[in-house]
Write a structure and sequence with these properties.
- The chain is mainly beta and 611 residues long.
- 15% of the residues lie in helices and 37% in strands.
- The strands form seven sheets. Strands 29-28-30-34-33-35-36 form a seven-stranded mixed β-sheet, covered by helices on one side.
- The chain is globular.
- The chain starts with a strand and ends in a 7-residue tail after the last helix.
Length: 611
C-alpha cells in the first residue's frame, strides 16, 4: 500500500522557493512511527536558473543526515532527485527534510549576489512516498497519522442525531470546506495500491460507551470504525491533546475535557508558531497565522507584544523589525542592543477577520565581503514570551467570522422537519458550511426540533422556512423573490434562486445563529483551490462553485431583495420616485412663490392713516 504526501498537502501551494544564492528551510512530513514502513522515497522535482555565470548548490538533509548535495548546471533547467528514506529518519512523529540552497560568483568577479537573477523552485507536487504494511496500522492514532488528507465518512443508513453530529464533526476536523471530505452510505471501492482516500465508518448504538474506535484491516487498506451512542467524541479526541490515548487497538471515549485558556492573552507558543532562530543576511520573515476562533467569544486582538532578540554584527549594527497584521503595517523598531527587546504595537479596530496572518519582517544591512567573503548572516529570534493581547468587543454576531468565534463555546444543530433529504444527501450542502463555520474544538450539540434550542447557546439551523423570530433580508414566505444588484439589475429570481443555497445570520430568542437553506441545484464542488469560506458579511448565496456573493445587510449592501408580490411603502416609493420627487419640487416652488407674492403685496399696500 503506497501513501503519498506532497508539499501541496502540507500547505505549500507554490512549493518551496529560494533566490539570491542563499536560503534554507525545513519541511516536516507527519509520520507517527516507522513500524508500518517497508520502504520510502523522497521525490523532488526542481527547476532552477540564473542570469550570470554563478556556481550554485542544493543540499537536502533528511533528519540528522545529509542525503544529497547537488551542483546545479550554469544553464539552468529541471532536475529530479530520488532519496531513500531510512527507519531512523522518523523522529518525534515527523520526517524532517531540510533544503539548503547556496552559491557564489567566480573569484574573479566582484558583484552584489543580488544581481545574479538566480532562483530555485521545488515543485509543490514533490513529496514523500511510503510503502506501508496495512496490517501494521492497527490503532486509531496510527490511522489518523498515516491516513490521506482526502477522507470519506460512511454514515448510518437511517437518520439519527448522533450520526448527524458525527458527520458534522468529521466535516470540521477533516476540511469539508476544501472538499477534503465526502459522505456516503456504502463503502467506496478501492481502485489501486495507492492509498488515496481514508475510510471512516460511523455506527450509532443505543447503549454502551459514548464512542469506541478500532481499525479494521479486512481489506487492502485500513478502515476506521467509530461506533457508540455519540461517535463524534472519538473523532474529536483524535484532534485534541488527548489523541495519544488512542494508541491502543481499541479506544473508548466517554467525554472530552477541553483545557481552559487565558481570556486576555494568546501566546505564540499556543498557536504552534515556528519561532526558531533565523540567520538573517539582509531580510527574513516570521509568520504567525491565527483565526478569530482561537480566542473566546466577545474578544478581539487589541495589541501585539513581542520579545525579539537580534545579534549584532562585528561593527555593532543590529536589525529592524517591521510588524504587519493582514498586510497592514503596525509599526517598526530598531533592534540595536544585542539582547532581548520588548516591543509593543496597537492593533486598529476592524483589522481582524476569520483568517489572519501576523508577519514580522526582519531587515539588516548586509556587510560587504570585500570580494573575498560571502556576507555573513547573524541570528534573530522571536522568543516564546511573545503574545497577542485581547480586548473586549461588542461585535459578537454581525459577521460570519464573529459567529464562528461564538461557536467556539458550543453550537446547537437542528435539521428542520421540512427538510426531506436524508442526512447523507444533505451533507454535501451542510458539510462545507459546517467546516467553514464551526471550529474544530467546538462542542456540537444536536437538537431534535427548534423548540429544543437553548437560549444561551448559538445555533445552526437547516430548514426551508424562516426559523428566526424576526424577518431576515431573504425569507421564503412572501412569495416570489428577486435579488438585484446595486444598479437594479436582476441577478437571481425564480428557479435560478431556488437552485442556490442561502446562508444568513438570524436571531432567535435574542441569540444569534446561522440559518442554512439548502439549494435544489448542484451542491458545491469544493477543493483546496476553491474553498467555501464565510468571513465578512451576514448573508451569502452558495452555488456549485462555492460562495457566489457574501454581503452585509446592515451597511452598504451589494444586494437588494425585492418581493414583487408584496406591496409596501418602500416599493411604492422606489417605483414612483421620479414622479414623487417632481411633485415635491412643484409644491415647494408654489410655496416659495406664494410667500414672495405675500411679501410683495405687503410692501405695495399704502400705510393706513389715522382719523
Amino acid at each position: 500500500m503506497i501513501r503519498q504526501t506532497s508539499l501541496r498537502d502540507l500547505g505549500f501551494k507554490d512549493g518551496v522557493a529560494f533566490r539570491q544564492l542563499s536560503g534554507e528551510t525545513t519541511v516536516y512530513f507527519p509520520v507517527l512511527n516507522s513500524r508500518p514502513i517497508r520502504a520510502g522515497q523522497l521525490m523532488l522535482d526542481v527547476s532552477h536558473g540564473a542570469t550570470n555565470n554563478v556556481e550554485r548548490y542544493l543540499q537536502v538533509s533528511v533528519g540528522d543526515r545529509i542525503a544529497s548535495s547537488t551542483g546545479l548546471p550554469v544553464e539552468g533547467g529541471n532536475l529530479s532527485l530520488l532519496i531513500d528514506i531510512q527507519p531512523q529518519d522518523v523522529s518525534g512523529g515527523f520526517v524532517a527534510v531540510k533544503f539548503a540552497y547556496s552559491g557564489a560568483f567566480s573569484d574573479y568577479i566582484c558583484v552584489d549576489e543580488r544581481a545574479s537573477g538566480d532562483f530555485l523552485q521545488v515543485s509543490p507536487d514533490s513529496g514523500l512516498s511510503l510503502d506501508l504494511n496495512s496490517a501494521d496500522i492497527s490503532t486509531p492514532r496510527e490511522f489518523n497519522s498515516f491516513r490521506p488528507s482526502q477522507v470519506y465518512i460512511q454514515l448510518p443508513e437511517s437518520n439519527s442525531q448522533a450520526g448527524l453530529a458525527g458527520a458534522i464533526r468529521g466535516a470540521t476536523l477533516f476540511g469539508a470546506e476544501t472538499g477534503a471530505v465526502s459522505f456516503v452510505t456504502t463503502p467506496e471501492p478501492v481502485g489501486s495500491q495507492v492509498w488515496e482516500t481514508g475510510a471512516i465508518a460511523l455506527e450509532v448504538t443505543t447503549s454502551g460507551p459514548a464512542s469506541e474506535m478500532e481499525v479494521l484491516n479486512t481489506g487492502p487498506q485500513p478502515e476506521l470504525l467509530v461506533r457508540g451512542t455519540d461517535p463524534q467524541l472519538g473523532l474529536w479526541q483524535l484532534s485534541t491533546i488527548w489523541s495519544g490515548l488512542t494508541g491502543a487497538k481499541t479506544s473508548v471515549t466517554q467525554a472530552i475535557d477541553t483545557p481552559s485558556s487565558d481570556a486576555n492573552t494568546l501566546s505564540f507558543a499556543s498557536l504552534g508558531a515556528d519561532l526558531q532562530a533565523q540567520q538573517v543576511i539582509s531580510s527574513s520573515q516570521f509568520q504567525i497565522p491565527f483565526q478569530s476562533s482561537d480566542f473566546p467569544a466577545g474578544k478581539t486582538v487589541g495589541g501585539v507584544e513581542l520579545v525579539v532578540a537580534a545579534a549584532l554584527d562585528p561593527e555593532g549594527h543590529g536589525a529592524t523589525a517591521s510588524v504587519y497584521l493582514n498586510d497592514v503595517l503596525l509599526g517598526n523598531y530598531p533592534l540595536d542592543k544585542g539582547r532581548p527587546e520588548y516591543l509593543k504595537f496597537a492593533v486598529p479596530s476592524g483589522l481582524v477577520s476569520r483568517d489572519n496572518l501576523l508577519r514580522i519582517s526582519i531587515q539588516r544591512q548586509a556587510s560587504g565581503g570585500e570580494c573575498r567573503f560571502k556576507p555573513q548572516g547573524y541570528p534573530v529570534q522571536v522568543l516564546p514570551g511573545s503574545k497577542l493581547t485581547l480586548i473586549d468587543t461588542d461585535d459578537t454576531g454581525d459577521n460570519f467570522f464573529e459567529l464562528r468565534q461564538a461557536f467556539t463555546g458550543g453550537v446547537q444543530v437542528v435539521v428542520g422537519a421540512d427538510i426531506e433529504q436524508t442526512y447523507a444527501e444533505l451533507m454535501p450542502w451542510l458539510g462545507g458550511v459546517a467546516g467553514s463555520m464551526i471550529p474544530d474544538q467546538a462542542p456540537i450539540i444536536p437538537r431534535n426540533t427548534l423548540a429544543d434550542i437553548d437560549a444561551s447557546t448559538p445555533f445552526m439551523i437547516v430548514s426551508n422556512a424562516n426559523p428566526s423570530d424576526a424577518n431576515p433580508l431573504i425569507t421564503l414566505d412572501k412569495g416570489r423573490i428577486e435579488i438585484r444588484d446595486r444598479d437594479g439589475n436582476i441577478m437571481f429570481d425564480g428557479e435560478a434562486l431556488s437552485r442556490l443555497g442561502i446562508a444568513q445570520i438570524v436571531s432567535r430568542n435574542g441569540v444569534h445563529g446561522l440559518w442554512l437553506r439548502p439549494g435544489e441545484g448542484e451542491a458545491p464542488a469544493l477543493s483546496a483551490d476553491m474553498p467555501l469560506v464565510l468571513d465578512r458579511g451576514n448573508l451569502a448565496l452558495i452555488g456549485a462553485e462555492g460562495v457566489i456573493v457574501a454581503t452585509s445587510t446592515s451597511g452598504n449592501s451589494l444586494l437588494e431583495v425585492v418581493y414583487p408580490d408584496q406591496t409596501n411603502w418602500v416599493q411604492i416609493l422606489n417605483q414612483y420616485r421620479p414622479w414623487i420627487v417632481g411633485g415635491l419640487w412643484i409644491i415647494l416652488t408654489l410655496l416659495v412663490l406664494i410667500v414672495f407674492q405675500k411679501l410683495y403685496r405687503s410692501r405695495r399696500s399704502p400705510p393706513s392713516s389715522e382719523a
